[in-house]
Amino acid sequence: MDDTRVATSYTFGTLPVRAAAVLAAFVAPVAFGVAGAAGLFGTESLWARLAFVPLGIAVGAVYGYLALFRIAYRLRLSDARLHWRAVLRAGSAPLADVRRVVPHARNHTTVELADGRRIRVAGVHDVWPFLEGLRRAAPHVEIEPEFATWTPGWFRAGG
Q1: Which of 109, 137, 143, 158 sits CB 3.0–4.6 Å from 121 for a disulfide?
Q2: Distance CA 105, CA 98 (A)
Q3: In angstroms, rounded to a whole number, what is the distance separating the alpha carbons of residues 100 and 140?
Q4: Is the pLDDT of residue 34 over 90?
């Protein structure tokens, strides 16, 4: 197999792309709430229009929390450990504790650990070289793409 298809690290997008994604997680729901309060959705009642504002703020807070703390943008293999990094949080686990990786069609990948924790990682389309590196470093890890997830032919062929 061509070793250019093997990687020991994966990073979702460039810094501007990641910054735009985090900003959009906060701003888009709040903008939706303000648009609803302005009556852009055809709501006549003042109370119904004002209800959009706290809804937008609440959804923005949840999405912002996920974008900052729960969705990793970087994975790295080193010293028999899997390291991950979110914007304001990081962690690692021994490769022996990594049980399964599921690339999803909805542009994220889930790493399942032996203790039940799940690490959600942004991106799926360019994660395949990293998954090949993971498959070589930890052959016990099950890599099961979700139905309808595009998988490169070289990866399906086992490397």
Answers
A1: 109
A2: 21
A3: 9
A4: no
Output the CA angle 34-67-146, nearest 5 degrees: 115
pLDDT at 2 over 70: no
More confident of the two residues 24 and 50: 24
Residues 6+ apart with CB under 8 A from 146: 102, 103, 104, 105
Domain borders along the chain are: 3-11+77-156, 15-69
* Cα end-to-end distance, the chain, whole Å: 6
Burial class (CB in 10 A: 0-12, 13-18, 19+), 76: middle
- Element housing 76 (H / E): strand 74-78
pTM over 0.85: no
**Domain 3-11+77-156, CATH class in plain words:** alpha beta
pLDDT over 90 at 49, yes or no: no
- Helical segments of 2-150, H only: 15-37, 46-65, 128-137
Phi/psi at 6 (nearest 5 deg)?
-120, 135
